[in-house]
Design a protein that fits this description.
Length: about 400
């Protein structure tokens, strides 16, 4: 049971979830301090030329009205602070969004912003002497009593689960973290918020800003004119030009129409995905994802969760988006914080380099997070030929296999 002497710093946004989390911590007898972390300037963002357009659908942890937030926490007798982290945001998130677009690599700005949020929380907790930090995220924590290692689990409410965003937190951060909503469902949180009777905003499911259809246009002010490479878009199978384009910064590997791919070809937009980008020539290659498949992905920059045994392969479920499907496979540990996942069945399409992946122990329910990392490659295997990287097609593989047989006299 918590005591009055325990001090906790909680990140708040003015929305329902963090307000209920702060209320529950105070009810447990903790000395709660609320902090709002500012990643963007307050006010009318449309006139701010030094930032992306702050579309409320994509701004993670965006704050609307600091005075309103302060009023809510004053009513709960919880001290409230605001921390300006705009400089860190531009260096660690904003600039990396631009850089990854120029490289044609995927990038999850929500995951990066979440990591920055916790870096700020840990720093500020030390300043005020708080031994723990908290948020209104939906996920669960468990500590191994023997090893002292902390493990992250998905929430019982899979619709609201946010373990995907928290999977990259360090052991130091997990050791300090409290998640008051860990065993709750969104409907229960809503009931408590209504009972509290204070004015908060409704919680929102934000998109990854990297996947905004207009992002290519929005980052142009940050690009020197001589770095914008115009070129042409080609269909992979027949190497025929489809259209011209205004710059490689509008594309990234694995991009489809839902994530901003704009190919002016009537009736084909939803059947195409970017499979190759040639930075020198400005050539972008697209293909029908139904003609592509992969059986393996390699992950780099991995952080392995509590309870991961690196001696043997593990039966796992891997997820590429915050609320995406978990796909079954087998994880093989490699050197230098890397691993390979072999899927139980062929997967259609393509997963772009830089995509964040989270590996779970179960397909559904409360599942342990085993690992997280970024996609280095997706590929499939041909016996006697090794790895085949996308783009590739079943027909192309049959030609390679037949060639190998011919060489061996079959």
């Amino acid at each position: 049971m918590a005591t009055q002497s325990q001090k906790v710093l909680i990140a708040v946004t003015g929305r329902m979830d963090s307000a209920v989390a702060a209320y529950l911590l105070k009810k447990q007898g903790m000395e709660v301090h609320a902090v709002a972390v500012l990643f963007h300037a307050q006010g009318d963002s449309s006139s701010d030329k030094d930032a992306f357009t702050l579309d409320p659908k994509v701004v993670q942890y965006g704050l609307s009205d600091l005075n309103l937030i302060k009023k809510a926490y004053d009513s709960m007798e919880i001290p409230f602070y605001a921390v300006n982290a705009q400089e860190q945001y531009y260096a660690l998130v904003h600039d990396k969004v631009v850089a990854h677009r120029l490289m044609g690599r995927s990038y999850n700005s929500k995951v990066a912003t979440t990591q920055l949020l916790f870096d700020v929380l840990v720093e500020k907790a030390k300043v005020i002497g708080a031994k723990s930090i908290a948020t209104g995220h939906y996920a669960k924590l468990q500590m191994n009593q023997k090893s002292g290692e902390n493990s992250l689990f998905s929430s019982p409410d899979l619709v609201s689960d946010q373990s995907f965003l928290l999977a990259g937190l360090s052991q130091e951060q997990l050791a300090m973290l409290q998640l008051p909503l860990s065993d709750m469902r969104k409907a229960e949180t809503e009931k408590i918020a209504k009972m509290m009777g204070i004015k908060t905003e409704a919680s929102k499911k934000h998109l990854n800003v990297f996947e905004k259809p207009t992002l290519g246009k929005e980052i142009e002010p940050f690009l020197p004119p001589d770095i914008i490479t115009e070129g042409e878009v080609y269909q992979h199978q027949d190497d025929q030009m489809i259209t011209e384009h205004k710059g490689l910064h509008h594309f990234f590997l694995g991009q489809g129409v839902e994530t901003g791919l704009d190919i002016k070809r009537t009736g084909m937009e939803r059947d195409l995905v970017v499979v190759d980008i040639e930075s020198k020539s400005g050539k972008v290659v697209v293909e029908d994802p139904r003609k592509l498949f992969y059986t393996h992905v390699s992950l780099v920059g991995c952080r392995f969760g509590g309870g991961s045994n690196s001696i043997f392969p593990l039966d796992v479920y891997i997820q590429f988006k915050e609320h995406g499907e978990r796909i079954s496979g087998k994880l093989y540990f490699k050197n230098n914080q890397s691993c390979v996942v072999e899927f139980s069945n062929k997967q259609s399409g393509l997963v772009g380099r830089g995509t964040v992946a989270v590996v779970y122990a179960k397909a559904s329910g409360v599942a342990r997070v085993l690992a997280t990392g970024q996609i280095q490659n997706c590929f499939h295997m041909i016996k006697g030929h090794g790895r085949r990287f996308a783009p590739a097609s079943p027909d192309a593989d049959e030609e390679i296999e037949q060639s190998l047989k011919n060489q061996m006299g079959f």
